[in-house]
Amino acid sequence: MAALADAVLVLHAVLVLFIVGGLVAVWVGAALRRSWARDRVFRFVHLAAISIVAGLAVLDVPCPLTVLEDWLRTGSAGSSGFIQRWVSALLYYDLPLWVFAVSYAVFLLAVVLTWWRVPPHPKASSPLG
Predict the structure, then answer these.
(1) Domain count, the chain
(2) Rounded to a whole number, what is the distance in angstroms from the first to the last CA of the chain?
(3) 23 CB contacts (<8 Å, ≥6 apart)?
(4) Torsion of CA 22, 94, 97, 18, to 10 degrees
(5) Where are the extended beta strands (E) located within the chain?
(6) Rounded to whole angstroms, how far apart are CA atoms 66 and 9?
(7) Is residue 123 classed exposed, middle or buried when 0-12, 13-18 and 19+ CB atoms within 10 A define those classes?
(8) Using an 8 Å Cβ cutoff, are 54 and 108 in contact?
(9) Tally of CB atoms within 10 A around 65
């Protein structure tokens, strides 16, 4: 079970990198005039990902990946979320859950504002273009 839990952890980390890195990539790609930065499919998937994360946090619903990882490791769900756990572990901050919910909502707002400032192409395009 530990190997499956590690796989869920890696998937979770990749998702976090996609969400955070995706916003940075859009701004850098737009500044460099790369068409993939305005790719509608990429942008929609990115927006959907942060919308789900922010929605779960605001509704105080535990992240399914965190619950699955905890269950695979211990047989029960833990009390902290993925970001909260790693921020606490890496930076020694024990912040209340609402701080993370607000952070996710603000990040979602940044992604939505990016749609306005760096709009995707009007039609779906190739990410390689």
Answers:
(1) 1
(2) 41
(3) 46, 107, 110, 111, 114
(4) 10
(5) none
(6) 8
(7) exposed
(8) yes
(9) 17
Q: Which domain holds residue 28?
A: 2-117
Instruction: Please report whether residue 127 resides in a domain.
Output: no
Structural tokens at position 107: 């990040």
Q: Which of 34, 11, 31, 20 is nearest to 127 (CA)?
A: 34
pTM over the 0.70 mark: yes
How many residues belong to the chain? 129
- With CA atoms as reference, report the closest residue to 114 among 47, 49, 14, 57: 47
Other CB atoms within 10 A of residue 107 CB: 16
> Which tokens belong to 78?
């833990």
- Residue type for position 105: A
pLDDT in tens, 92-124: 466 788 888 999 999 999 999 999 999 998 875
Q: Do residues 93 and 87 lie in contact, with contact meaning Cβ atoms separated by under 8 Å?
A: yes
In a domain, 98, yes or no: yes
125 inside domain: no
| Residue 92 located in a structural domain | yes
Residues of the chain with pLDDT under 50: 91-92, 129
